[in-house]
Amino acid sequence: MVKTITVGNYVSIQGLFVRDLADGRIVVRVGQEEFAGRPVVCKNR
Q: Number of structural domains, the chain?
């Protein structure tokens, strides 16, 4: 499943979901790299 995370104030990354972290962040994979950040939540749902 593709997820979007924020890293810092101005950078967002979209990639394949890997896992949840204990502090509320998630890990996504883009190619061979993994990134951790806060998930972007759609408020229209």
A: 1
